[in-house]
Write a structure and sequence with these properties.
Layout lengths: L21 H11 E8 L2 E8 L4 H12 L7 E7 L7 E6 L16 H4 L7 E4 L10 E6 L24 E7 L1 H8 L16 E13 L2
Antiparallel strand pairs: 1-2, 1-8, 2-7, 3-4, 3-8, 4-6, 5-6, 5-7
């Protein structure tokens, strides 16, 4: 487990374009994103889940929300890059709990989705490609280095799959920053991740759709 992480148009007559009905257009717009409220011990975080650009990953996260599998899980990791309070990530989720974890999903590359690990992005944690389940992380600052990168024959650089962004924080970045500042227990975590695990993980009390 990573513990860090098109436009469709209908055929129309060229002489008589038929606009989509207003109600249908509004419904399509409404269904493109879903608002989710994470109520944490430090306060609420509002997520906008992007079903239009990352349909597979968004659907996976919403399964965990709808089945209440995130209720009672925690934010357990906070990583400050270069020791900065404005650059890093916080991570939460099921941590392999067999009572909560669903089957892994296929990887949805940012090269396909067009999304990026910019400030406030929410992305899937994983180990190998195609192993993401119920852990996710929220980005503080610009971590576009976690985006997928194509192979470069000129330099011999192999393709980098990156991590799968599937939404953004629309409210509650103050809570995210507070999570980043929580005390760390340097003795916790597997090798390579020590110094990043919260001494007292912060509980997600509930995770619910808002629509």
């Amino acid at each position: 487990m990573f513990l860090c992480s098109g436009t469709v148009s209908a055929m129309q007559s060229p002489s008589e374009p038929t606009p989509a009905p207003v109600a249908a257009t509004k419904a399509a717009t409404a269904s493109a994103t879903v608002a989710v409220r994470l109520q944490t011990e430090l306060g609420p975080i509002i997520l906008t889940i992007d079903r239009e650009h990352a349909p597979l990953t968004a659907a996976n996260f919403l399964r965990y929300v709808d089945q209440k599998r995130l209720d009672g899980t925690t934010f357990y990791r906070a990583l400050k890059l270069e020791g900065r309070s404005d650059l890093g990530l916080v991570q939460a989720g099921t941590r392999g709990d067999p009572k909560r974890v669903l089957k892994p999903i296929a990887h949805e590359s940012t090269l396909t989705t067009g999304l990026s690990h910019t400030d406030g992005a929410i992305s899937m944690a994983r180990a190998g490609v195609g192993t993401a389940t119920g852990d996710f992380f929220i980005v503080i600052g610009d971590l576009s280095s976690l985006d997928a990168k194509p192979a470069d024959a000129a330099t011999g650089q192999a393709e980098d799959a990156g991590y799968a962004v599937f939404g953004r924080i629309t409210e509650g970045m103050d809570v995210v920053h507070a999570l980043l500042e929580q005390p760390i227990d340097a003795a916790l975590g597997p090798e390579g991740l020590r110094g990043q695990m919260l001494a007292k993980p912060v509980k997600i009390l509930t995770a619910r759709r808002m629509d």
